């Protein structure tokens, strides 16, 4: 009975090859970006050029140290290996940069839409203020009304209509 597997207890996880290869995508991406940045520098090109010159010089001039004779097959193998790793790392770094650019573009679009909405709101408010200011009594209108009241003028209504026509014509 002890040899039988219990169904009420989860199985223990066994380590497999795939669980060993689980890597943090951000850490891999940061590593790839660091390598891509280094591969694109003048320092890398200078160091690689010096290594190649020393390699070829030692294999041509130093007879006892020849580990890679003239066709330099080992050097070609090293360059091929470097290229095989460099290309995917550079592509990974470019993909991460494209993702960052996409997020930045979306934020820029959202910010532009918000600014457009704010601008439209302010334009509507400004238009309503202009309308409200146009409906305010002017100094001349108030002066005329006060004069009419003080003079007891019965023709004040006629004068009011004329001043209103003038205001409407000016607006």
Automatic annotation (TrEMBL):
Q: Which InterPro entries match?
A: DUF1003 (IPR010406)
PANTHER family linked: INTEGRAL MEMBRANE PROTEIN-RELATED, MEMBRANE PROTEIN
Supply the source organism for this entry: Blastococcus jejuensis
| Name this protein carries in UniProt | DUF1003 domain-containing protein
Could you confirm whether the keyword Heme appears in this record? no
Q: Which domain of life is it from?
A: Bacteria
Q: Which residues form the signal peptide?
A: none
Query: Where are the bilayer-spanning segments?
Result: 44-67, 73-93
Keywords, alphabetical = Membrane, Transmembrane, Transmembrane helix
Coiled-coil stretches are none
